[in-house]
Amino acid sequence: MVTSGPVVIGLDNGGTANNATVLDSSGSFLVDGLVETPSLVREGPAVAVEALVRATDNILELTGVARDRVLAIGLDTPGPASADGVISSNGSTNFAHPEWRGYDFRGALEEKLGIPVVYNNDGNAAALYAHFVYFGAAAADHSSVSAIIGTGLGGGVIESGQVVRGAAGMAGELGHVTIPMHGLLEDGQPLPDCNCGLSGDAESVASLTGIEKNLLPYWLTRFPDHELTTVPGGKAAKLVRGHGEKGDALALKIFEQQAMALGRLFSIAANFTDPGAYFVGGGVVEAAPHFREWFLDTVRANTVLREEQRRVVSFALVPDLDMAGARGAALAALETSAEWTGR
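^ Glucokinase, sequence as received from the core. Prediction below:
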């Protein structure tokens, strides 16, 4: 699709792939699906930046847009990183190569492309997309909180249509909020540990890692004849959702605990930001409709709200999950470019 007006590009940088999209000044996306190229992040910053340049050139060629029409690039990456896109000095799962520590990813890409780059972490980008899809033209009048279950638990807080980034850029790290465990865990179920070093935070339950490290090992002791007892831990954790879709008792116990964890997380959010909508994303969004609706209903049932809040809030799933990061990054770039140009 060819457009004659200005555009922005959204780049979603992941552990194995970069997903790219193009958004025109009217707010229309010029691609309907995933456009992926290898991210090569494990090979270090220099290689990864070049990979993003190729992703940019590829999406421009695909959409027939000249580079001089690009107002800005929206970049999102997994955290932890600063508000300006400087990777944590401790590195992270995706950025384990030692040269990533303290690396200015946003600045390096901007210098390489010669185009302004606007940075968000991937949870914030997906949260922004969910917010704008749900509220549409009224997005600036609303607030929302999103929790996105993946290998970890990402998320984002949107206030008046704007991402809340915080002083160090780490607002919305919902996975590392400690939640009450009484009544969530079974009698004798160990307190779950998170890879971040905390115990009993939301990610220790509501994440694929939480399933592998904490939930599945416990529930297999309660279902010793389950077929997953013979499957290696990492592979078994990825199979739990499929079992849940079929009504498997062990899997439903695991996902019930995950939904309870999100409900308790949202209960905390209700008293801090009082958002108008709560969004849930992750693998559960890609599950069978009956299962994802059950999961969302269970989250809702475990979110403690005042009656005044219940009358006005909404619960919904993050749409277009595979594309939400790139699209949210593009929305952030479009918004920022509008500020630059005074539109």
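The mean pLDDT is 93.
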